[in-house]
Amino acid sequence: MTVGIGAGRYAPSPTGDLHLGNLRTALLAWLFARSTGRRFILRFEDLDDRVQPDSADRQIADLASLGLDWDDDVVYQSDRLDLYSRALRQLSDASLTFECFCTRREIHAAASAPHSPPGSYPGTCRNLTEQHRSAKRASGRPPAIRLRTNTDHHRVTDVLHGKFTGPVDDMVLQRGDGTFAYNFVCVIDDAEMQIDQVVRGDDLLTSAPRQAHLGHLLGHEAPTYAHVPLVLGPSGKRLAKRDGAVTMSDIRLPPQRVIGLLSQSLNLTALDNVWPSDLLDQFDPAALPKGPWTYSPEG
Ligand code: GLU
């Protein structure tokens, strides 16, 4: 085992119980971190308005029952608002932010103009004069704060996907209602917590260039990324609660059987019952399946 100096993390949103897809990602994040001697941090991304009371505690209980462990105290983003405000001030002081008064509809209309990458911010408020800004502020709508980027692409390296180049735009750092954006707090946290290995679902691969670019502007080294394949439900869409018995409390299998099921789907073992620590010695990221796993609760 190589002795790492950094840390990996699992960063769920406490919006309900974890399902098998989330648990599989948690298992992989733990294996990536522990097999390389890294610390492992559990961080709740609880700034979202879909957060449910007690959900974080239930997720902690499920993860612990499966034999996953973590270092230090569990981190809640809602306890760290001062850190995010300070980081935003630093970016603003360095002239790397601007106020944006656009509505979603305005952005959508402008972004569908030819040559703009789909969904990207067209730069409408980037160069407003101070008079324009004052007039917009006076109209009553609080502005979002966006990053002033100096590139439109950034390349990251991913253990499973190789080199990946994706679009970067003037992303939102803080919404008009004061909520900090996921892409912003994720980067601030990863840097502050010395996370140098980011393992998460491959639906977030396209967020990595933006996040790495922001980290780069802040002088942080890019982490090692591993965007792992998702679990799909019987409909072929990403597994969800509506697919039936997909959470620990629904499936009622012993934890070592759940780890066995997930590990078999990842080609990590042939055994039916295992604990995560049993998988550490032979864990090899190169042997992981590249595509999604379809799970049918009935079958
Ligand atoms: N909170 C995100 C999720 O639950 C993960 C974000 C991340 O790992 O960067 O999908």
TrEMBL record:
<keyword id="KW-0648">Protein biosynthesis</keyword>
<dbReference type="GO" id="GO:0006424">
    <property type="term" value="P:glutamyl-tRNA aminoacylation"/>
</dbReference>
<dbReference type="Pfam" id="PF00749">
    <property type="entry name" value="tRNA-synt_1c"/>
</dbReference>
<dbReference type="GO" id="GO:0005829">
    <property type="term" value="C:cytosol"/>
</dbReference>
<dbReference type="InterPro" id="IPR001412">
    <property type="entry name" value="aa-tRNA-synth_I_CS"/>
</dbReference>
<protein>
    <submittedName>
        <fullName>Glutamyl-Q tRNA(Asp) synthetase</fullName>
    </submittedName>
</protein>
<keyword id="KW-0862">Zinc</keyword>
<dbReference type="GO" id="GO:0005524">
    <property type="term" value="F:ATP binding"/>
</dbReference>
<feature type="domain" description="Glutamyl/glutaminyl-tRNA synthetase class Ib catalytic">
    <location>
        <begin position="9"/>
        <end position="247"/>
    </location>
</feature>
<dbReference type="GO" id="GO:0008270">
    <property type="term" value="F:zinc ion binding"/>
</dbReference>
<keyword id="KW-0547">Nucleotide-binding</keyword>
<comment type="similarity">
    <text>Belongs to the class-I aminoacyl-tRNA synthetase family.</text>
</comment>
<keyword id="KW-0436">Ligase</keyword>
<dbReference type="InterPro" id="IPR014729">
    <property type="entry name" value="Rossmann-like_a/b/a_fold"/>
</dbReference>
<dbReference type="InterPro" id="IPR000924">
    <property type="entry name" value="Glu/Gln-tRNA-synth"/>
</dbReference>
<dbReference type="InterPro" id="IPR049940">
    <property type="entry name" value="GluQ/Sye"/>
</dbReference>
<keyword id="KW-0067">ATP-binding</keyword>
<dbReference type="GO" id="GO:0004818">
    <property type="term" value="F:glutamate-tRNA ligase activity"/>
</dbReference>
<dbReference type="InterPro" id="IPR022380">
    <property type="entry name" value="Glu-Q_tRNA(Asp)_Synthase"/>
</dbReference>
<dbReference type="InterPro" id="IPR020058">
    <property type="entry name" value="Glu/Gln-tRNA-synth_Ib_cat-dom"/>
</dbReference>
<keyword id="KW-0030">Aminoacyl-tRNA synthetase</keyword>
<keyword id="KW-0479">Metal-binding</keyword>
<dbReference type="GO" id="GO:0006400">
    <property type="term" value="P:tRNA modification"/>
</dbReference>
